[in-house]
Amino acid sequence: KHNNIVFSDPYVRSLSINDHGIVTCSSVSGNTPIVVPNWQSEHHSIRFFYAQSTPFKNKLLYPQEGTLILKLSYLPHYSVNIALYPELFNQLLRAKSQFGLTMTVENAVLDGDKTLLTTPRSIASLFTLSYELSPTCIITYIIHSASSMWVIWTIILFVIRRPLSQVFDTVSLDYWRIRRGLKKQQFEPYLQPVFDIDGKLTGAEVLARWVHPKRGIISPYEFIDIAEKNGQINQISAQLMQKCALHLHNSVISSAQSFNLGFNVSAIQFDNDTFFEDMAQLKEDLSDTGIQLTIELTERQAFSSQEKYMFAAQQLKACGVKVSLDDFGTGYCSLSYLLSSDIDIIKIDRSYIRTIDEGPNTHVLDSIIELAKRTNSLLLAEGVETTAQFDYLKQVDVERYQGFLFEKPMPIDQFKSKYLNGHSNN
Q1: Distance in angstroms (rounded) separating the CA atoms of residues 390 and 399
Q2: Is the pTM of this model over 0.85?
């Protein structure tokens, strides 16, 4: 049984039983009695100490080596002695040498290199461990222990470098700037009025402006495309809708006057149900004002399918929201949208309006106007900047006008004061 214990544990050198100073049984000497010199009786004690020599000195392969003794005294005259290899403990200490580990027993100190005898003293436990912790120790430990992990992570990063770069390209620093702007409520609705042929106000288009504390007013051309790619465009639209509701909820439009409030929306925004929820909330907030909501479908991005577009248009119509085609004629899907659903308003892009000032080169503009008229949709010319443009458009019976010739976009409170103040409850 003794030998089974010794052979099964690499730390155990030998196991022996001492009775009245005589080793009566041992894994080294068997049942041969061996007298222990200078033996003293001990009662109910457990000791852990270093012994330079043992009664088995002449029977060991390396008699010059000392040993660690774990002595368990059950009776004053009876004890079990377990001899352990000091070198194995030193090996454990050397494995973490950067921390300066030392192990102290009753009469010796093990420092990883050797075993040093000390004056016997009483300690609270069988042994103690001491360490030295410094920035150098920590750095050395990280370098040694994490060297294999550096290799693994290098391989992983090499494999995923391309998809990772695409993610960083998509979610750039602009994402965090826009996120901070949203958190600080920096996106403001600017309204540009829309007039009929007689100069009567018929509505307004809501345009996003980023009012930055350091950069001032940032044009939508600098952030709208980025927000669409980053998936933040719905949050910007929601913030604009909330501020429109806050400023316009107490305005009342007479029944004899129609007022369309238009929001630019791209196809990607319909992928999120929150857009319809935000629109429904705005419609409810403005339900007592007489303001009619209009969604202006832009062509910055196309719908993934005709069915998806039809579903979005039907959802808007079901909510009592008008549908307008923005920048008509600039994208490949305008005609497709026009033919597949009931469009309320067609906005002729400013690029065609400018051809009026360039002489007789208005054939494309005339064709667009003729096509739009056949759909029974209301025609709105955007970007009207000169009297010549206005006069020409009146001649071809365009019904609505928007542009710098009439008014520039302005903050919503300024718009309300100038155009809706006479219809306010306040």
Answers
A1: 11
A2: no
Residues of the chain with pLDDT under 50: 61, 423-426
Model pLDDT, residue 196:
94
* Element housing 327 (H / E): strand 322-328
CATH code for the domain defined by 185-423: 3.20.20.450
CA distance 193 to 172: 35
The two three-digit tokens of residue 175, written as one number: 């994402």
Instruction: State the CATH architecture for 1-84.
Output: 2-Layer Sandwich (3.30)
Please report the pLDDT score of residue 141 as a whole number: 65
For tokens 């494309």, the residue is 364
Distance from CA of residue 80 to its chain's centroid? 62
Q: How far apart are CA 296 and CA 325, in angstroms?
A: 6
Cβ burial of 395 (10 Å; 0-12, 13-18, 19+) is: exposed
Residue 419 Cα distances to 102, 140, 201, 382, 411, angstroms: 85, 72, 8, 19, 12
Backbone angles phi, psi at 12, to 5 degrees: -85, 125
pLDDT number for residue 426? 37
Residue 188, strand partner residues:
209
Contact 296, 260 (CB under 8 A): no
What does DSSP say about strands 291-297 and 345-348: parallel, antiparallel, or unpaired?
A: unpaired
Closest of 258, 261, 257, 238 to residue 249, by C-alpha? 261
C-alpha angle with apex 140: 136 to 143, nearest 5 degrees? 140
3-class secondary structure, 16: strand
The pLDDT value recorded for residue 425 is: 41
Q: Are 83 and 14 in contact, with CB atoms under 8 Å apart?
A: yes
Structural domain spans, the chain: 1-84, 185-423
Strand ranges across the sheet with 108-110: 115-117, 108-110, 102-104, 128-130
- CA dist 400 and 398 (Å) reads 6
pLDDT at 35: 86
- The pLDDT assigned to 423 comes to 45
73 and 36 in contact (C-beta within 8 Å)?
A: no
Cα dist. 83→76, 129, 159, 242, 287 in Å?
A: 20, 20, 53, 80, 91
pLDDT score, position 156: 76
Angle between helices 173-183 and 233-248 (to 10 degrees): 20
